[in-house]
Amino acid sequence: MSLGWLIVLAIIVIVVVFLALTYNRLVTLRQRVKEAFSDIDVQLKRRHDLIPNLVETVKGYAAHERGVFDEVTQARAGAIAAGAQGPQQRAAAEDMLTGALRSLFAVAEAYPQLQAVQEYKDLSENLRDTEDKIQFARRFYNGQVRDYNTALQTFPTVVLAGAMGFTSSEYFEVEAPSDREVPKVSFTPSA
Q1: How far apart are CA 173 and CA 138, in angstroms?
Q2: For burial by CB atoms within 10 Å, which of 15, 38, 151, 188 has the most?
Q3: Per-residue b/e over 40-61, b at no fewer than 16 CB within 10 Å?
Q4: What is the pLDDT, as a whole number, of residue 64?
Q5: Is residue 138 a contact partner of residue 56, using CB atoms and an 8 Å limit?
Q6: How much is the pLDDT for 181?
Q7: CA angle 54-58-62, nearest 5°?
Q8: Residue 151: inside a domain
């Protein structure tokens, strides 16, 4: 075998190894995105399971607030139905549910006797804990999406990614404009 053939063979081996490493890196990043999204899914399921119990507890004290209960129930059903859709649609449905839950908690605040019920306290605490976990899972997912999308868009991977069947992923973003607003705080000087 001549030196020329050895050089060609070495170049082919280097290219094959580079392609294999690039492919494996992209597969790993894509799997991390899927795993992170499944973490969001688990927390959202937990949230969806807590809501009916919370609604029933509040209903016992505020039976005349039927519209709020219907809104929460419909928003929950919409969020569950959005489970098979992509991150953007799912985030929009979850934002609607969050708004409905705010209304429910506003109703609950009007009933001090409800605030003293242990079941309500436990459900509220579990829901707050779940909301915190959802926020963490969203941030983790979006970080994984960022890393994956960055890998897809950097050279030389950008040249190969499309040919290997890799496409970018969507972020799980807040859609409600009210969630993006900065709260207004005013201080009154004391005399």
Answers
A1: 8
A2: 151
A3: beebbeebbebbeebbebbeeb
A4: 74
A5: no
A6: 52
A7: 160
A8: yes
For the chain, the domain total comes to 1
For position 41, which CATH number holds? 1.20.1440.20
State pTM to two decimals.
0.79
Contact, 51 vs 126, CB < 8 A? no
The residue range of the domain holding 50 is 3-140+147-173
Q: For 70-96, how does the pLDDT look when each residue is reduced to its tens digit (9 = 90+)?
A: 899 999 999 999 888 888 889 989 999
Cis ω before 87 (30° cut-off from 0): no
66 confidence band (pLDDT: 50, 70, 90): confident
CA neighbor of 161 nearest in space, from 33, 32, 24: 24
Looking at residue 43, what is its pLDDT?
A: 94
For 26-38, b/e burial (b = at least 16 CB within 10 A) is beebbebbeebbe
